[in-house]
Amino acid sequence: MPKMKTKKTFAKRVKVTGTGKLKRHHNFTSHFAANKTHKQKVQLRKAALVSNSDVRRDKALLQG
User: Fold this and answer.
1) pLDDT (tens digit, 0 to 9) for every residue of the chain, 64 residues total?
2) What is the 3-state secondary structure (H, E, C) of 12-53?
3) Three-state SS at 4
4) What is the pLDDT of residue 3?
5) Is 18 contained in some domain?
6) Residue 1, domain member (yes or no)
7) Are 6 and 62 in contact (CB under 8 A)?
8) Contact criterion met (CB below 8 Å) for 15 and 62
9) Does residue 3 lie in a domain region?
10) Which of 5, 11, 34, 57 is deepest in the core (most CB within 10 A)?
């Protein structure tokens, strides 16, 4: 069976931290910013961790 390739598009969107968690960016940031409060826009700038229910599937996309 051949090696599984890393999904490159997904690898560009997610980084692995030193403890093995997956770090991601928030969505809803690109446009329609006038409809959002300043607090929303500030909080959306910060990175977030991938939820625990998605980690197993997402790590399978990165193995390669």
Assistant:
1) 888 899 999 999 999 999 999 999 999 999 999 999 999 999 999 999 999 999 999 999 998 6
2) HHCEECCCCCEEECCCCCCCCHHHCCHHHHHHHHCCEECCHH
3) coil
4) 86
5) yes
6) no
7) yes
8) no
9) no
10) 11
Report the amino acid identity of residue 26.
Answer: H
Count of the separate structural domains present in the chain: 1
For residue 52, which amino acid is it?
Answer: N
Written as one letter, the residue type at 33 is: A
Q: What is the pLDDT of residue 4?
A: 87
User: Is 20 a member of any domain?
Assistant: yes
User: Which residues are CB-neighbours of 44 under 8 A, at least 6 positions away?
Assistant: 26, 28, 29, 36
- Report the phi/psi class of residue 41: left, alpha or beta, with left for phi > 0 and alpha for psi in -120 to 50: alpha
Enclosing domain of residue 43: 8-62
Amino acid at 13: R
List the structure tokens of 12.
Answer: 């560009």
